[in-house]
User: Fold this.
Amino acid sequence: MSGNVIGERFLLLIFGESHGKVVGAVLDGCPAGLGLNEDDIQSELDLRKPGQSIVTTQRMEEDRVEIMSGVFNGHTTGAPIMMLIRNTDKDSRSYEAMVNSPRPGHADLVAKMKYGGFNDYRGGGRFSGRTTASFVMGGAVAKKLLRETLGVEVIAYSLEIGGVRAEGFDIDTARKNRYMNEARAPTAEVAEQMKRKIIETRGKGNSLGGIVECVALNVPLGLGEPIFGSLDSDLARIALSIPAVKGVEFGSGFASTRLTGTENNDEYYYDGDEIRTRTNNTGGILGGLSNGMPIVYRVAFKPASSIASKQTTVDLATRKEIELIVPGRHDPTVVPRAVPVVENATALVLADHAVRAGIIPPILGKRQ
Amino acid sequence: MSGNVIGERFLLLIFGESHGKVVGAVLDGCPAGLGLNEDDIQSELDLRKPGQSIVTTQRMEEDRVEIMSGVFNGHTTGAPIMMLIRNTDKDSRSYEAMVNSPRPGHADLVAKMKYGGFNDYRGGGRFSGRTTASFVMGGAVAKKLLRETLGVEVIAYSLEIGGVRAEGFDIDTARKNRYMNEARAPTAEVAEQMKRKIIETRGKGNSLGGIVECVALNVPLGLGEPIFGSLDSDLARIALSIPAVKGVEFGSGFASTRLTGTENNDEYYYDGDEIRTRTNNTGGILGGLSNGMPIVYRVAFKPASSIASKQTTVDLATRKEIELIVPGRHDPTVVPRAVPVVENATALVLADHAVRAGIIPPILGKRQ
Amino acid sequence: MSGNVIGERFLLLIFGESHGKVVGAVLDGCPAGLGLNEDDIQSELDLRKPGQSIVTTQRMEEDRVEIMSGVFNGHTTGAPIMMLIRNTDKDSRSYEAMVNSPRPGHADLVAKMKYGGFNDYRGGGRFSGRTTASFVMGGAVAKKLLRETLGVEVIAYSLEIGGVRAEGFDIDTARKNRYMNEARAPTAEVAEQMKRKIIETRGKGNSLGGIVECVALNVPLGLGEPIFGSLDSDLARIALSIPAVKGVEFGSGFASTRLTGTENNDEYYYDGDEIRTRTNNTGGILGGLSNGMPIVYRVAFKPASSIASKQTTVDLATRKEIELIVPGRHDPTVVPRAVPVVENATALVLADHAVRAGIIPPILGKRQ
Amino acid sequence: MSGNVIGERFLLLIFGESHGKVVGAVLDGCPAGLGLNEDDIQSELDLRKPGQSIVTTQRMEEDRVEIMSGVFNGHTTGAPIMMLIRNTDKDSRSYEAMVNSPRPGHADLVAKMKYGGFNDYRGGGRFSGRTTASFVMGGAVAKKLLRETLGVEVIAYSLEIGGVRAEGFDIDTARKNRYMNEARAPTAEVAEQMKRKIIETRGKGNSLGGIVECVALNVPLGLGEPIFGSLDSDLARIALSIPAVKGVEFGSGFASTRLTGTENNDEYYYDGDEIRTRTNNTGGILGGLSNGMPIVYRVAFKPASSIASKQTTVDLATRKEIELIVPGRHDPTVVPRAVPVVENATALVLADHAVRAGIIPPILGKRQ
Assistant:
C-alpha cells in the first residue's frame, strides 16, 4: 500500500493538490445498496467551509462534490466510488515567489527535498490542508453507512482553542450546538469566548492551536483487531494524518499517567442485561477493542503555521537567512475547520473495522 | 493484512500467547547481508526483563530467543526471519478461577465476547503485555540495521512515573543512564525518586502510570509517506499497539495547543551547509516527513491494571456484581519495562520507512 | 486491499463503469521526475481502439484521457496520478431490456447476485472490457518509466486467432509489424489470414478466441519476490484480471509438461562477461525471479461472449428458459484489442517490482 | 506485503529453508472456534510424502507438524496459528561443492545474484520445493474450515504425467482413487501407466513433467473480487507460486482459443429453483466470480530440473563452462507430490475469499 491509502476492506485512496485541477478520493469496498447521492457528501463538506467572522478565508471555493462512479440508481453498487471537487479559486502567484523561501512550520522544505524539487509547491500542493476535503468525501459515506446500519453517531467539537476550554457540558449539548457556531464549540458561551480569542490573535498577525474532542456513540463491542490493527492504533494513525495534528489521547489519556490503578480502572456492573463500566477512563477501547462504551478521544492541533508576522527562514538560492512574511490572508486557527475532518476520519476507521468484522454485510438489502 | 502485521516492506508478523508454548515473530523484508545472531536480539530482550527491587516479577522466564530461519553463516539472507522464545514459567491456575470474573482495565471481557469464548484467557493470552517481546525481537533487528547502515540511534527513557518527572537533562545523559537504573530514568537522581514512589505505591496494593519519551537521532530527511503513511501516523499507530498506552504526542505536542504560531514555528537557519531549525517544536517531523532534526515523541501509559486492591466486577455465570482481588504478584508500573519496547517499536517503523524509501538497499554489501 | 487495486509500491486503483460517467485510474507510487503528459497515455489508449474492417465497433468514443493530479510542470511529482476518460457514446437501452436475461458467457448473472441487484448492469458495468482502458492508463506510465530508466521494452502481439497461428517470425519483425495491422499480428501475412478468418466468423454471427504472446526485453535480473510475490505469480494474476482470459503460460509452458528434463532445462554459458542460457524454455523467469533473458509468456482468450446467434438463457422474472439474441454489434474477437492491454498490464507488474527492488529510485534526477 | 505472504483476511506468511532448522507458516485470520489439532494438518502433510517405488526419495523426514500458537482447548482462538516442522534428515555437503556451479533449471544463480551471495543455497534454500510444506500447513486449516462451514471439497489429481493422460473418468472416481496410488492419478489404470513411464524415465537419468487438475465442489456463488482480486487471478497467482509451475488454465482454457462463441458459451437453465449452466467451459468462474458450478482448473508442471544426466553450466569461480551431474537421488517428477499442494493452495484462496465475503463468519459457534 502507500501513503495515500487508508483502510483495508473499506479502503480510501485520496488524490489531488491544493492548486491543481481537483482534490478527490476513491472509496473502495463500500457495501452495495447504500442510498447515496451528492447531497450526502456535500452536507459534510459544507461544514468544513470557513466561517465568516472568526476565520479569514483564503479562498472562496464552491467545493461542489461530483460522484463519478460506483453509484447507480441512487445506491452504491459495490464498485469503487470516485468523488472529486474542482479547484476553482486559486491564485498561485505568491507561491512562485516563495519557492526558495520555505515557510517555517510548513512542509515546503522537506517536500522539496524528498521529491527532488518536482513536487507541486503551489498552496502547499499535496501537503495542503485542502487534502482533508478528501477525508471528508470518504468519511461522509462512512458516516451514512454507520448510521443506517448500526446507529453509530460520531460527534466532534472544539474542546479548546488558544487555551479557552469548554467545561461542564454533556454530549447532547455538544451534538446540538457544535455546528451552530463558527468555533464548532459544544456550547454557545464557550464559542463566544473562543471567537474573541481568535479575533484578538488574528489582529496581532498570530495564530492559535487547540484540541478537538471526538465521541462515537453506539459503537458495537469488539471492533478492532489486536494488536497492530487495534482500534486506537488506527484512530491514532488517521488523526496524525491530518495536517497540524501533534498528539492524540484516548479516555483519560495523558492525565491517566498521574492516576493510580484504583482511580483509573473502570469497574464493571450490570445495567439490566448489559455489562457496562461505571467510569469510562479507557475511552471505550480496551485491549484495542471497542468495549461498548462511548469512544472518546482528543486530537491536539498546533497553532496554524501561516502567520502574518515576520519570521526568519533561509533563501535556498542565495543560501542566506532572510525574513519572511507569508503573504495572503490566513486562518488564525485550523481547529474549527478540523472538527468535521476528525468526525469523518473517525467514521472511516469505524466503518472499515465494522466491514472487516462482518458486522456490516457486503450487501444492504436486495433490489427488486 | 491483519492486526498482527505491521510494516510494509520491512514487515513484522507476531504470534504467541502469554501462557501458550511460545511468543515470537516473523520479520520479512530485512535486507540480505546484515550480520545477525541471537545475542543481538537477546541483549534487547534482556532490557525488557523486570528489575529486582522496584518491580515485583510475576514470572522469571529465561526468555532465550532462538532464530529459526532467515539467517545463514551469520548474516541475514533476505528470507523471512522467524524468532521465538518459549514460555516456561507459567502458572495458569489463577486464571482458570477468574475466567468468569473479568478484571477491570483488562481485555478479558471484550476478548471473550469478540472470540466467542474461544480465546486463550490464561495470563491475558494474546492481550498480555508479554506480546511486546515480539516487538522487541523484530525491533532488535531494525535497530541494528538502522545503526549499521544510517547511524540512526533510538533512545527512550522514563520521562515521568507517578507524577515524578525528569527535568533538565540532555540526551547524552539519558543515553548513558537509562539502562543503568531500574526505573529506566534519564538521571540517577530522578530514578531514585521514581523508585521510592513505585515502592510506596506497591505497598498500598496500587499502581502507577507514566510517560516514556523517545528520541531518534540521525534520521535522514524525508522518511515518511504522505498522507496516511506519514511517519508520525505510523509511529502513533505502533505506540498505541503497546498495551496500556493511552496517548502519544510529537514535539511540543499537547502543549503546542496553547502556544501561538510565532512561539511554536521552528525557524530555519544555515548550520554550515545544512539547513536546521533553531527550535524543534515539531519533534523532527513536518508534513509527516522527517526533517533531519531529532525525532522526539512521548507515549502515555496508564497505571497498571492488575492491582492487589479490591475492585468491583461482574460474575458472568451468576450475572451478579462481585468483588475481586486479582491474585498473584503485580508490576506496580509497566513504564520501566516499556522503555525498550518503545525504542524497538520506533526502530521498526523507521527501518520500514528507510527500506521503502530505498535509503537502505535490499542487499548490504556482497558476499565473496 | 481490494479487488480494484494492484501493485504494492507502484500501485494502481481503477474505477468506472462502461456506461457510467467515466473510467479511470489512480496511480500511486510513481517516482517523481518522470516527464509525462496526456499524449504519453493517449498514444497507448489509441492502440486499444477497434479497427475499421475486422472488428465491428460497438461504440465510437473519443477516449480522450485527462490527467487530473500528480503531474506538475510536465513531470510527475510523486503524488497520486489520477487519470480518466469520459464515457460519451453510450446507449444503454438494450441493456434495460436484458436486465432479466443474463447473457451466456458474461458476468451478468453472478454480478447481479453478488451485489444484490445493485450493480450497474449497463454495458456490463464494472465487468465490461472497457475497464481495461484503466489498465492502459496506468500501464502507459509504467511503460514510459521502464523505458526511460531501464530500457525495458514490452512487445505483445496476436500469436493466434481462431486457430490461425503465427510461426517463424522474430521479435524485431513483431515489434515493427504488430501495430501496422488490425489483427495486431507479428507479420503482415498472418495478419491477412487472421483478418479473413475474423470476417468469415463475424458473418456467421459467431466469434473467435486466440492467444496473445508477450515478450519483455532488457528486464534486469532479480525482479520478483519469492514465493507468492514471484514475478510469474504477479504476471499471471494481472493477466487473469483481463476479461475473457482463461489461461496463461510462461516459456515452454503447457508444452513443457511433455518434455523431459534434458530437453527443457536451459543450460548456462558465458556470453562475454554475462551468463546467459542457450535456450529460454523457462521464459525468462526462474524461481519466480527474472533471470536476465527475455520474459516470454502467453495469454489465452476465449471467444468473445457476445454473439449475434441465438442462445438459450433464463428469464429471471418468469423463471423460464428463453432464447436470446444479444442486440447490438459485437467484436467478433477481443484478441487484437487485448494486445496493448497485455503489454500495459505487463509493464505495470514490471514497474512495481522494479520500484520495490529499488532498481528504479523514488526520484528521477533533480529539478533546478 | 511481501513475497512470503498470501491472502488478505485469511492470511498466510511462510518461512523456512530446505536445510535450515524448520519450515513453517503463520496463519492469521482463521475464525475462532474451528476444532483443530495436529492430526488435521499431519494427514495432509503425509499425502505430500514421496511414494516408495515411483519416486526416489531424496530425504526421509518425519515431517511432524507442531502447532505452536493460536489453538487452545482444541479450537482455534482467532489469534495467529504458528505451525512448523523441523528439518532433521539433511545432508548439505553436496551443495557446498555446487555453490559455484548453478544447476540448470534451478534458481541457484538468480538467487545468488539477487541476494548478493547471502542466500542459504543448501538444498535450494528458500527456493526448495520443500517450502510447499508451508502451503500445506495453511491449506490444511483452510480445507477443514471450508468443509465444516460450507461443505466445500477440493479434489486434485495427476491428469497427465510424461504425456500419459487420464481420460474418461468422473470426479467420484478421482476422489476415491487419487490417494490410493502413488501417481495420484484419478484411476488405477492410468496410475499404472504413469508409474511405468516414470520408472522408465528415471532409469535414463531423466525426468518428466505433467498436469495437475483441480476441482472444487460446492463453492458458493459470488466468491472473488473484481477485477484484480478475481478468483481466477488469485488461484493463478498461488499456482504460479508453486515451484516448477509454468502455466495455468481454467475450464476449457487454452483449448477455448480454438472454439467459437457458440461452442464455448455456457447456456443457462433452471435446475429446479437453481440456475445452472449446461456446460462448464468457464470452469466455474465468470467475470472473476464463482458462478456456483464446479471450479475446474489445470496447472502445468515442467519436468523436474534435477536430473542425473550430464548438463553444461558455468563455474562462477573460473568463469568457464563446465559439465555438471547433479549429485544425489532425484524425484523423476514432482507431479504426484504436487497434487496435495495444489489442493491445499486452492483451499487457501477459497477460504480467504469466503472470509472476505463474510460467508464464513469470524466466530464459529460459541463456547460455553
Summary: The mean pLDDT of chain C is 94.
